[in-house]
Amino acid sequence: MKFRKFGKALLMSALSTGAVLSVTSCVQSYTVGFLYVTGTQTSGTAGQGIISGFKIDHNTGRLVPIHGLPVATGGAYPDRAVLLTGGRFMYVLNTGGANCTAAVPCTQANIVQFAVGGNGILSQQGTFYTQGLNPYRMVADATGSHLLVLDHDAPSGAACSLVLGSGVTSCGDITVFSIDGTTGRLSLVQNAQVSSASGAQLPYFPVPANSIDMLLAGGFVLTLAGTPATGDEVFPYSYNGSSGQLSIGQNSTQPLNVGNATALQAGNNFVYVLDDEPITIGSGSTFPPGTYPSQIIPFSIGAGGSLQAQTGGAVPDAAGQSYPLFLLVENRSKWVYVANYGNNSNANAAQSGIAGFDIDTSTRQLTIMSGSPFGSGAGPRCLIEDPSNQFIYTANFNDSTVTGLTLDQNQGVLKPLPGAANKAYSLPGPATYCLVDGRTS
Question: Which of 208, 323, 384, 405 lies at a C-alpha separation of 20 to 30 Å from 34?
């Protein structure tokens, strides 16, 4: 049985944000950072992963290809990439396939380490492997000490009950690596709390089956899992930043009362669940009454990693938008942006766009921004703010482009970069993820 959202989740992309300064003849153009985009090639071996890269122009937001890129990711179907604090090392998660299952897993999945040169060039360093099957999510902690990878399927059903309770015979897992600060090489962190039937320590940390997303926030690792039939839930581990150990706290799995969650995101000291199912708004709301196709649900993190619902509850997505996949709180915590892929039943439906929200300074509630939704390419897969906090870019799966937008510093609205040539940048194939390096040249 194919697991929900996994094939589509393998094809995610990311973007960066920033604002535009006026350009005159006396203003010198310089690079403010590098934008990297993982993806697959339209031609050649199916699913072959590549990394494209661009220099971000500080004055205009214009993107200039980095000499020497694209380079191969060292595997097929890259889904996530992580750039460590300081920008010295990048890690790319190659999932190995687009429709893997527990019965027929992807056998070529890996994690490939790259060194980042001063000019933005990438050089491959090493290849590493998770302990479970079908990995597709990856995060690093804030200090760059550990890398955590979510495997959709644990290698042993027998180990699931050791953490998740008797009778649980299938689950996913998190593989944790420590990162060498000098070389960037990865070393496996054993599960110090749980031993297998043979008495050996588990080399992974079990999580509930049918996992969707993973988040490291507030000293906890939160895993989002579920199906439309069972409903979605969040499972918390406490995270030890010194050892990389994950431990079970007092709280067990927490139901969310939704059944089609697509992502678990963090920002502005909140955790947001993105959910692709209708929400009906009545009179008296800041949103016009009606039924909206998707929603954003804000939570704070309480004791033991429990999620505390926020005042006002779920917020509807922008009218006409669906399948929200990525959320970004901009640098000053004044605005929130949500990238919507589009109609989940039709990958080419023209419902892609970015929903913008104002953050109330007292209540922290979200209200829809004037002019929202804003344009993007077809099938955006992520959002990211550029190092100068001036521009936003979307990397898009359906039309194999990167789209640049300027961020209005007063109102938060997003506008196309100046100049027709800067509206979209072509990629060698569908984009799956992206990230930004703040080092300048």
Answer: 323
